[in-house]
Design goal:
The complex is a heterodimer of chains A (487) and B (497).
Chain A lengths: L4 H19 L6 H27 L2 E4 L10 E4 L1 H28 L4 H20 L3 H20 L5 H30 L4 H7 L5 H18 L8 H8 L2 H27 L1 H6 L2 H21 L4 H22 L2 H32 L15 H15 L5 H15 L3 H27 L13 H19 L1 H12 L6
Antiparallel strand pairs in A: 1-2
Chain B lengths: L1 H21 L5 H18 L1 H5 L5 E8 L2 E6 L2 H27 L5 H20 L3 H19 L5 H32 L16 H18 L8 H4 L5 H33 L4 H21 L4 H21 L3 H32 L10 H4 L1 H15 L5 H15 L3 H26 L17 H19 L1 H20 L7
Antiparallel strand pairs in B: 1-2
The chains are: A mainly alpha (487), B mainly alpha (497).
Chain lengths: 487, 497
């Protein structure tokens, strides 16, 4: 049974999506309950998987009994188990938290919404557990197609945002697929572990082209600056409920995919010879600075958060590009941090929009004193974003910073400093509004729906735990998930 | 037992902050009193072991593999801890008078942020390694932000923005420096005499020194990083008094001393230009700051520039890297704190009773408020360094430190600035007590501030006198300072002062 855990982790939401789509048409209100049950099951499976992997090492599972490299392999190793646990928990909490607003936001379309949500989560879990390069593409497409649909379900401007997301996202997927094609041509295999063994003997130019294509493709999917252009509009225009699920997870899982392919297929030794890591590190540094600067210029709250994610994904790319233990540790931690932090922030932005009709940072003053618990969660998430210790966000930055300093790359340390300075300004612009601004108008709206508040507080607690428990998280989980070839 | 005392001294203010927010608003002051007394008591309990030469430790939990949230109380930390927690008691009493006089709103938020700030200051004081220090250093900034913007006027928000950008921004070079130290040496634990000696090239040490000083230089308001401090004077006066004359800025100078004496140490700084550059910046700050203070009409701004000047005295003493200079720094850190909090208390009392905040408006007020202006006079003379009052001893040691370092220029600037201190503080006394003869006639009404403000104000002035006269107090204070200098420079082979 435990051997099939990786498969179950993505099949649970995937099959439930089909059931929800079929049943939801006939039974009113079944869709949300089924979704909650499926996501709870996914969460439990992921946590069990994390526990098993930490105790007894990676779990390999072969679809249909075909051994690799013939059949498709699913692997739950320490890295995928850690990220999957974060993704499953954040998905459960954000979907549960935004449940109350779905009925008002998407009247009559709940069945459609919940099936897309489950497909999306299924695709993301699939990306995390697959050990096959082509299968990764399939899951990427499953996740992306449902994400396009979810964006398109939004209000004014959503179709346009969804269309550009679709076009750019498909370009990214195609680039990735093309890269995989080159790898297949060079090695004759699609299994990651198998390709990793053969890639050294592959023609160098072919391998280079494949690398560029894959980094470009997944760079688009993870919104790595300057390939991020689809993201801010997509998360600004999508329904609030969908944004609070997608913004925390989609780019983070795609960043995981990039780390997976680079370090587990190419491997650290090959990477250090080429320019892929340099590309990643410079892209990351540019993202850290520009994500911060662009976030400063935003007036729309969700757009601002999206640009903040551009900066945070920059930290991930920078840490991965530095190719030492500290850098990778920081990158992995920051994937988890940004998932949780953006969960809080997008849920809160949803509450602001739906309860208080607030889209813009400048109007946040209307929330003052009316939503104290949501505000408290936003304070925690915001301070984590700035990197105030001992919250989770501090440690991601700390490890990447030590990695940059250890390599003597001062300009990268300077980029992190610049990005952090920008985040101080944009975060406190928000905090100042919700905590101190003079209340405008006398509308009586109170705190968001109880589930949303609870979800915000749960995720804020995770932010704190990821911070003060950092030593445990790193030594028990992250240290095991580093690729073996790092200095 | 001692580790419990450390945990309590740091933890109680934070717990109090949470309780103040959770409990009904009318209990806010009661919680503050209880927490202030308890915190100071635990700090005093630690005095015995520390004077006995021990350095009690508390290892709370590991935060990064190989690094702990670690408290270690030594003489330097305890000096700062006693200063912050002791003055919290008087300031709480003063605050409860002030919030009534000035009709401050949001009292729970005010007292909670205040308590959290003191907790952060205690954490800074007792931090046993750089990461713990950094954690509380940032916490102090975040906790004081609500106090800076407390009045919620556009002016307060503008000051708050500048405050955050400077002070949180200043934390970033500090973070880079800490990360660099960590990768270079694999340790961040403070050690008397430093742990960087021989661990990096002179160029690297200079760069590291610059980053560290950029980080702590913002809070200690060394020019040109000082402009946040006068702007932060929009905060309610008790905040200016305890935080922007004692806790926050002293966290900066305390950090400078910690880094110079416990991270670098005299050995690794020998032959480097960097401390001389820092000393030169401090001297420039002393000279320029004094001149600017002369021209301020707003009383709180004048006091703020005076703070900037005296902070640079303290940093200068550490930058001289001589035993006597370090002793002078530590003593002046305490003494300036006492004198300056008295001056701010007076400014607040004047504002709360008369709503006057400019020096030129104080004409003749001395007769109306004799106790307030009496205290103001004592504190002014103390800050100038009149023998028999608190400022004298520290300045004496600073001067001796300058001579020890062979830096005659520093000596001249310090002495000149003492005269300028008289130049910007004594005219206030003169205007208040001896108005021009053509002032409007009639005996002015005698109207002092409320007792809740007057008592702590006079108490602080008494402390100014006691710290200059009472042998027992000076003995303890000097003992702690000499202990630090002995350990730091003893490790370098030099003798105790």
């Amino acid at each position: 049974m435990i051997d099939h855990l990786p498969v179950l982790m993505f099949l649970a939401p995937f099959l439930s999506a089909l059931i929800v789509a079929a049943l939801g048409l006939y039974v009113r209100g079944a869709a949300s309950r089924l979704t909650l049950a499926a996501l709870t099951a996914t969460g439990v499976l992921s946590l069990v998987g994390l526990e098993r992997v930490a105790a007894a090492g990676a779990i390999h599972s072969h679809m249909g009994g075909w051994p690799p490299p013939i059949g498709i392999e699913f692997v739950l190793d320490p890295l995928s188990a850690f990220v999957a646990a974060v993704v499953a928990v954040v998905a459960l909490v954000t979907v549960a938290g935004s449940m109350a607003s779905v009925r008002g936001e998407l009247p009559g379309r709940e069945t459609f919404y919940y099936s897309c949500v489950l497909l999306l989560v299924g695709g993301l879990m699939g990306i995390l557990v697959t050990g096959d390069l082509f299968n990764l593409f399939v899951h990427l497409e499953v996740a992306s197609l449902s994400a396009y649909a979810l964006v398109a379900a939004g209000g004014r401007g959503a179709p346009r945002a969804a269309l550009s997301y679709l076009l750019i996202g498909s370009l990214g997927a195609s680039l990735y697929l093309l890269g995989v094609g080159f790898l297949y041509a060079g090695t004759g295999s699609l299994n990651m572990a198998d390709v990793a063994g053969l890639i050294g003997g592959m023609d160098g130019r072919l391998r280079f082209v494949a690398g560029i294509l894959i980094v470009g493709g997944l760079g688009i999917k993870m919104a790595l600056f300057p390939l991020h252009v689809w993201m801010p509009s997509a998360y600004e225009r999508s329904p609030a409920a969908a944004a609070s699920l997608m913004a925390p997870l989609v780019t983070k899982v795609c960043a995981y995919a990039l780390l997976r392919v680079l370090y587990w297929v190419w491997g650290g030794d090959l990477l250090r010879e080429g320019i892929l890591l340099e590309l990643l590190a410079w892209g990351g540094a540019a993202a850290v600075v520009m994500g911060g600067v662009l976030a400063l210029l935003q007036t729309d709250l969700r757009r601002l958060f999206a640009y903040s994610s551009v900066g945070q994904m920059g930290i991930v790319a920078l840490g991965a590009g530095l190719a030492n233990k500290a850098g990778m540790t920081g990158a992995i931690l920051h994937i988890a941090n940004d998932a949780v932090v953006k969960g809080v922030l997008f849920l809160a932005a949803g509450t602001a929009l739906l309860r208080f009709s607030v889209r813009n940072v400048a109007d946040l003053g209307r929330l003052r004193g009316r939503a104290p618990w949501t505000a408290a969660a936003v304070v925690v998430a915001g301070l984590s974003l700035v990197g105030v210790p001992p919250l989770g966000g501090f440690f991601g930055k700390w490890y990447v910073l030590t990695a940059a300093v250890a390599e003597g790359r001062w300009y990268f340390a300077a980029a992190i400093v610049a990005g952090s300075l920008a985040s101080i300004v944009y975060v406190f612009r928000i905090l100042q509004q919700i905590l101190f601004a003079q209340p405008a108008g006398e509308d009586q709206a109170r705190e968001g729906p109880a589930v949303a508040v609870l979800a915000c507080l749960t995720l804020a607690a995770v932010v704190v735990l990821l911070g003060i428990g950092n030593e445990r998280v790193v030594s028990l989980l992250v240290a095991q998930s580093l690729p073996g070839t790092l200095p | 037992m001692e580790s419990a005392a450390i945990g309590s001294a740091v933890g109680i203010p934070f717990v109090a902050a949470a309780l103040i927010l959770a409990a009904p608003a009318r209990w806010a002051e009661a919680w503050s009193y209880a927490a202030a007394l308890a915190t100071a008591t635990f700090a005093v309990l630690l005095l015995g072991p520390v004077r006995g030469g021990a350095a009690p430790e508390l290892d709370v939990l590991p935060i990064v593999p190989g690094l702990s949230l670690l408290f270690r109380v030594d003489a330097l930390g305890l000096t700062f801890g006693l200063l912050a927690s002791g003055l919290w008691i008087v300031t709480t009493l003063y605050s409860s008078g002030y919030v009534r006089g000035d009709r401050l709103k949001n009292r729970p938020r005010y007292f909670a942020a205040f308590a959290a700030s003191i907790g952060a200051a205690m954490g800074i004081a007792f931090a046993g390694n750089l990461l713990t220090f950094f954690l509380f250093y940032e916490a102090l900034t975040v906790a004081t932000y609500p106090l800076v913007v407390h009045k919620e006027t556009p002016e307060a928000f503008a000051a708050g923005r500048r405050y955050l950008l400077y002070v949180l921004g200043g934390g970033l070079p500090l973070l880079v420096a800490i990360a660099w130290t960590w990768t270079a040496t694999g340790t961040l634990d403070f050690r008397p005499g430093g742990f960087l000696h021989g661990q990096a090239s002179p160029q690297a040490l200079s760069g590291l020194f610059a980053l560290f000083m950029l980080g702590v230089g913002v809070k200690s308001a060394v020019m040109p990083l000082h402009t946040w401090l006068p702007a932060a004077m929009v905060a309610p006066t008790p905040v200016s008094a305890l935080l922007h004359a004692v806790a926050v800025v002293k966290a900066g100078v305390f950090g400078a001393m910690r880094v110079i004496a416990y991270v670098f140490g005299p050995e690794s700084l020998e032959g480097l230009e960097a401390p001389h550059v820092l000393a030169a910046l401090c001297l420039a700050t002393i000279a320029i700051g004094s001149l600017i203070a002369l021209r301020q009409d707003n009383l709180k701004r004048r006091l703020a520039y005076s703070t900037i000047v005296h902070l640079s005295y303290i940093v200068l003493g550490a930058a001289l890297t001589t035993p006597l200079g370090l002793v002078g720094s530590m003593m002046h850190m305490v003494n300036h704190g006492l004198a300056k909090i008295t001056l701010f208390f007076c400014a607040g009392a004047i504002y709360a009773t008369t709503h006057k905040e400019n020096v030129s408006e104080l004409r003749g007020l001395g007769r109306r408020m004799p106790w307030t202006f009496g205290a103001f006079t004592v504190a002014s003379l103390g800050l100038m360094g009149l023998p028999g009052l608190c400022g004298f001893v520290g300045k004496l040691f600073l001067a001796r430190g300058a001579i020890e370092a062979g830096n005659v220029f520093a000596l001249v600037v310090m002495l000149g600035a003492s005269l300028l201190t008289a130049g910007y503080l004594l005219p206030i006394v003169r205007i208040a007590f001896f108005p021009c003869p053509d002032a409007p006639g009639g005996e002015p009404l005698r109207r002092e501030a409320a007792p809740a403000m007057l008592i702590p104000l006079v108490a602080a002035a008494v402390l100014v006198i006691l710290f200059g006269l009472a042998p027992a107090i000076i003995d303890v204070q000097y003992g702690l300072a000499a202990d630090v200098a002995g350990r730091v420079f003893g490790a370098a082979g030099g003798g105790a002062p």
